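Students often ask what a holo structure prediction actually looks like on paper. The answer is less mysterious than it sounds. You provide the chain, you provide the ligand, and the output is a string of discrete structure tokens encoding the 3D arrangement of the protein together with calcium ion.
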Amino acid sequence: MVSHFLFQVILFCAFPTVLSLEKNPHIRRVSLYIYVSLVLLMGGFLGAVFSIELFNSIKLSGGTIAYGGFMMACVLLTFLERDVFILQNIMRLVFTVGIFKVLLFAIVVKTLQADRVINALDVPDTLFELSIPLIILGAVLIIIELYLLIFMFDRFKHKIKGHAMLSLAYSLSFILVIIADGILFPLLAFGVQSETFELIIGNFSGKVLIGCTYGLFLFTFLLLSRQRMERVVQEPLLDWNLLLTSGKDIVEKMDRREQQLRQAKTVFETSREGIAILNMDFAVVDANCALVNMVNPVSADQGVLRNEKLLERFLSPETGKIAQQTLQSGESWSGEIHWSSPEMRRYGMLNLVPVIDRIGGISHFTLSLTEISELVHAREELRFLANHDVLTALPNRRQLHNVLAKDLQPFSGGICKALLIVDLDNFKQINDSFGHVAGDELLLDFTHRLSFCLLGKGRLFRIGGDEFAIWTHSLSSVEHAQELAEAVRREASKPFRLDEQNLVPLNCCIGISVYPQHAKDVKTIYQQADTALYWAKGLGKGNIKLYKQGMTDSRRQSLQLETALREALTENEIEVYWQPQISLHANHITGAEVLARWQSKALGWITPDIFIPVAESAGLMSALTRVVFAKACEALIQMPAALRDKLIIAVNLSARDMSDSLLLSDLLNLLTAHGLVATQFELELTENALLDMDTQSLTSFKQAGFSLALDDFGTGYSSLAYLNTLPFDVLKIDKSFIAQIPKESSSCALTRSIIQMGREPGREIVAEGDETTEQAAFLAAEQCQKVQGYLYSKPLPVGDFIEFCGSYPVRD
Ligand code: C2E
Ligand code: CA
Ligand code: CA
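The corresponding structure tokens follow.
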């Protein structure tokens, strides 16, 4: 008998197992439902057909074996399909099959009882007799038991950890429900009476055996289906909310849900945003095309990312850990990330969100990635542009301040660091004469030279048109900084090739300030290097100056002076004084040199030795020249005509004036305005002024009628041969030679030879600074034509000068 029992059980276990192997979910589901319906239909019938007796006392009807098989198949179906409507479907099946069975059996009974029926096997019609109440009760119980089981399963999975333990708990609850059925069914069917208890006791061991046998199979099945079980743990088996809804509602809800799913699927597939679903281990379960294209553009296979731990690719181990912890605690995480694809580095906004299931647990995570590479590249370019110079791509002034601020933190230690500010000499002239393109070329060339020269020694910045800065952060000494400046200057002094014909020499001035010797903070070190540069430039081209205490004070003063001088020029504070020039030979006044004088309302008397250099460095010289010239004209026309017409007026021009293309026309306009002529004026120029000038402008002044005088003659370095080629009418011997006459024989000899060498037909020699009669006598003996000096008069205000002319013979 045992073997009969076992064969039946094996059959009931084998079929659902085989059906569960079907891969196509639709076929699998339908087959299992059909199978379950068949078992349901056959179960009631078999109960009436046979009952077997095992181990003498255990009675098992065919119905009980089928009932156990049915319950087990339903449980498997629930686990396999994880369809939240599964119990509703089974419930419907139970009712449909029940009604079908009742109707079919009733017809069969009637048919068997009919007269002309052939009943070849002599089947008794009682075999098909059914009790409708018992069928309904059985059906209701089955449904309740299934719901109870699934309910218990859903509770257990949050309480019991471990796959084996959970499988055991599920199987035990299955056994208990089967046994409970053995007690409940007779009680409900026949009421509380002694026969009922006998029936229960009689059937009890049978139910226990059935429960245990199928329970054992269930346990083995669950134990072997680890993956399925894990999925079941992540999602609830049943939607309890749907339990009481009607079939129509369920269909509607299902439709809606399906539609939502379809919409979600479309969004997922067509989104330009990369989307992936991650499992609880953060491995990719599914990823859309956009994400595959972003991350792995060479592969067309959408499954290429499956099982990959994407977060490891996107986030550093530390950030990854934080993100994972955040997600596990139920919170979202987002951040900017980057990854490399074959062609470039790419950037994106990553958003990670935990997916919460119906009972509040986390089942998955969604990953969405919006690519922002273009935005980031544009942002980086903007950042680069904000901190770099476009032409040379060197970091700019702003970046210099950032770097200094970072490197000069209070704890930056005692290592020597130096800031060098480099200013190219004459760069403006190169731009003006060769054009901006050539100027740019030169700057690039200079940048390359400097970068090469600084390799490993310091960083280079372009902080202005022709200003560069060098920041060195590891120097052994202050001298080291000066050596570096020397090397930079050497580079700058090598000629630059502008084009095929033009190789121009250039130079630069450099100001240096050293940390911590001079300055300890950004603002000070910058100001000091700038001040040192200012001083270096004041000394002339190609100078290097290390910052010294006191530079700032005098710079501040000169800035103050500069402001005051600007005002003086417009506020009419500049006066001209007249110093007579005397003909040694005829002993009469030939004219006067006009000299600028400044009595500042705020600062008092300021001598030309102080304000002329300030005007020069501040670019105020051309304004000063015009003021002095205009004042001289005004004074001249106030003079009696008899005096005025006899005087030659010498006016000083500066080096800058010679490159001032408007000066000549402005002077001529002033003359016209005052009714004067150029021939009455002599323009004094020093040798320095000649250096920055082409001889053409000299000629144009001369052609306009002005006489030209070479001032401070003898102090420059130009060869006399060169000076002789220039169209000067007057040479003014510098007062430093005259001062030593006649005490020092060497000065006498030098002056003598200067006078001789400078003598040319039609050219006058004038000596300045004649203070004594001895000097006058010496100069007369050497046939110097004119003198100017304190012996005759200091420079005088115009009134005093006119008075002086009245007391001294004036040229006829
Ligand atoms: P400079 O052109 O050589 O002018 C002559 C300077 O010698 C004047 O000094 C004058 O006062 C001074 N001097 C004249 N005779 C004697 C003397 O016998 N002994 C001594 N020790 N000095 C004498 P000042 O007026 O102080 O001007 C100094 C310099 O400032 C001038 O030297 C000139 O280079 C510049 N300067 C003055 N006014 C102007 C101006 O209007 N324009 C330009 N470009 N420079 C000017
Ligand atoms: Ca002069
Ligand atoms: Ca002079």
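The chain has a mean pLDDT of 88.
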